């Protein structure tokens, strides 16, 4: 017999069902709201008040999807390889974000593992997986997951994830997992039947907020923290990316994020392995990544959309929506983010129609992840177009150089390293026809407000939408993709070999620019990154120092007289100078 437990504080009768037979459960005397009982081992569910069997909220395996029964998992039974893995810290690393379902045509953990040698050759240090919790259907981004302790079965289930993590560690790659605590998907969410996992005290863009501060929130917080620790402990994952933490409404004296960070630090001490948390936050609040001893929340790092927006406006000239403030003077915006971290650090945001942010401490640039593309910034466009859809290879190379020589922790989005021509679009596989149509029509309405025709917005439910988003692995061997891939490899290698190019001290970075002639120069110790955008003739760039050699070049440049360097249009040069 196996012991089963579940938290269902408002239930009068709770049973565990195994093999279509219900077995009674009793209240646990010293754990309010908890029930326990014994039944045979097998696929199981919990019946509340005589209703149908529901999946276990803490299920680690949903072989038939989020609506099916749960299956016990013996994590100790998995055979990890003998290759030692002691982890590695995030500072100084390069992160690579990927989506299991579209990284390879197989759309599985094993299929992704077959491509890990490409990432090793590229030189990245961490693979960041988009969410892998179960969701209805086969295809989706993963942000509508509903079983926060389990692994999407079409990807390979629990053992598939472990095989992938093990394969990464054998190759010296760490693994980061994107987890979603701020909401659950609209379909297959049975948590409200068990207890007050959500509260109407607060509302979010997805409806009622996750209950972090109302009655019953102790157990809800324990549920989320337990899920986070399970990924790090049972699957040996190295860090978690926390989705949209600004949507975690929490008015308790001890914030949930601080409690989570403390628990993760305790697990790191117990395992002897560096473990970390990365926030996605829209707050521009440096306290998110300030250590707890200094009065902060204690997360390790956060995504930096300000740097992305400035870079995107510079490269594309787009000025709609939140790009507006950055597009006014994009050269100055890039310079500001490279030297101050946040663009909005107490300044007025026209998009928000208010002042926004606080100054970022200059010594800790590595606490910000810098990127030119992410799943959000590509996939949430009307047609999922990457930068490669509109930019020349020269401009793509400029974006790579500004990211990979920045004082931030660089992050790449899968395929950008070779300028992938495949889009990455928004796709779903909802099994409820009404929900599927609501998502389809809602997306068309959203982009119609920005001038898009309905027929030009891909249908999220169409199989062609997800298939068109799968990377084409024949591209890296062809030009111009091969040249761009070599450029990424070279920049990552230079970043690793020259500490000045990865130093996180924002105060040591200076930037000068000439918007009229399309020139931006970043000073990093004895190195200068010079980017030339646009123009029709070579541009003479005064160095005010002695040119001693070119370390990396995409396009054309040549030294002139009197410490001058000439750059052709859409060229980027990383050079060394001697003062």
UniProtKB/TrEMBL annotation:
It catalyses: hydrolysis of (1->4)-alpha-D-glucosidic linkage in 4-alpha-D-[(1->4)-alpha-D-glucanosyl]n trehalose to yield trehalose and (1->4)-alpha-D-glucan. Coiled coil: none annotated. Residues 46-73 are annotated as: Disordered. Residues 76-443 form the Glycosyl hydrolase family 13 catalytic domain. Keywords: Carbohydrate metabolism, Cytoplasm, Glycosidase, Hydrolase. The keyword Cell membrane does not apply. It is found in: Cytoplasm. Belongs to the glycosyl hydrolase 13 family. PANTHER family: 1,4-ALPHA-GLUCAN-BRANCHING ENZYME (PTHR43651), MALTO-OLIGOSYLTREHALOSE TREHALOHYDROLASE (PTHR43651:SF11). This is Malto-oligosyltrehalose trehalohydrolase. The lineage of its organism: Bacteria, Bacillati, Actinomycetota, Actinomycetes, Kitasatosporales.
């Amino acid at each position: 017999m196996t012991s089963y437990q579940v938290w269902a504080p408002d239930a009068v009768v709770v049973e565990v069902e195994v093999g279509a037979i219900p077995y009674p459960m009793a209240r646990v005397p010293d754990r309010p709201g908890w029930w326990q009982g014994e039944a045979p081992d097998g696929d199981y569910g919990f019946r509340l008040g005589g209703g149908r069997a529901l999946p276990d909220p803490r299920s680690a395996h949903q072989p038939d999807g989020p609506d099916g029964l749960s299956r016990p998992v013996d994590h100790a039974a998995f055979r990890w390889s003998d290759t030692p893995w002691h982890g590695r810290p995030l500072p100084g690393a390069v992160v690579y974000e990927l989506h299991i379902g579209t990284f390879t045509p197989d759309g599985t953990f094993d299929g992704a593992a077959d491509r890990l040698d490409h990432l090793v050759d590229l030189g990245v240090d961490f693979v960041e997986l988009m969410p892998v919790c179960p969701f209805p259907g086969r295809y989706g981004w993963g942000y509508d997951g509903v079983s926060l302790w389990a692994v999407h079965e079409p990807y390979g289930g629990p053992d598939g994830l472990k095989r992938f993590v093990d394969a990464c560690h054998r190759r010296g790659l760490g693994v980061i997992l994107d987890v979603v605590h701020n909401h659950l998907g609209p379909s297959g969410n049975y948590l409200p039947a068990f207890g007050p996992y959500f509260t109407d005290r607060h509302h979010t863009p997805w409806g009622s907020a996750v209950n972090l501060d109302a009655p019953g929130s102790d157990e809800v917080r324990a549920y989320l923290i337990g899920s986070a620790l399970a990924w790090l402990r049972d699957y040996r994952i190295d860090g978690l990316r926390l989705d949209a933490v600004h949507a975690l409404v929490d008015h308790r004296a001890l914030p949930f994020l601080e409690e989570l960070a403390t628990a993760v630090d305790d697990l790191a001490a117990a395992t002897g392995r560096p473990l970390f948390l990365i926030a996605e936050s829209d707050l521009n609040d440096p306290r998110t990544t300030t250590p707890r001893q200094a009065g902060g929340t204690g997360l390790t790092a956060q995504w930096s959309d300000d740097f992305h927006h400035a870079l995107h406006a510079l490269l594309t000239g787009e000025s709609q929506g939140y790009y507006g403030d950055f597009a006014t003077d994009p050269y100055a915006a890039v310079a500001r983010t490279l030297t101050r971290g946040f663009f909005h650090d107490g300044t007025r945001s026209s998009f928000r129609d208010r002042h926004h942010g606080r100054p970022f401490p200059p010594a800790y640039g590595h606490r910000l992840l810098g990127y030119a593309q992410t799943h959000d910034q590509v996939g949430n466009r009307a047609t999922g177009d990457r930068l490669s859809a509109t930019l020349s290879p020269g401009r793509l190379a400029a974006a790579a150089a500004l990211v990979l020589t920045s004082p931030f922790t660089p992050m790449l989005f899968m395929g950008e390293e070779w300028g992938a021509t495949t889009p990455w679009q928004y796709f779903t596989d909802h099994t409820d026809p009404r929900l599927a149509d609501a998502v389809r029509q809602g997306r068309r309405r959203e982009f119609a407000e920005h001038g898009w025709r309905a027929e030009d917005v891909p249908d999220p439910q169409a199989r062609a939408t997800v298939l068109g988003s799968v990377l084409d692995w024949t591209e890296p061997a062809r030009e111009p993709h091969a040249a761009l891939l070599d450029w990424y490899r070279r920049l990552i290698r230079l970043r690793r070999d020259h500490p000045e190019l990865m130093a996180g001290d924002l105060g040591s970075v200076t930037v000068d620019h000439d918007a009229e002639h399309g020139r931006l120069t970043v000073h990093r110790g004895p190195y200068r990154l010079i980017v030339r955008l646009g123009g029709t003739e070579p541009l003479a760039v005064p160095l005010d120092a002695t040119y001693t050699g070119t370390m990396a070049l995409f396009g054309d440049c040549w030294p002139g007289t009197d410490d001058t360097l000439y750059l052709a249009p859409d060229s980027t040069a990383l050079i060394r100078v001697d003062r």
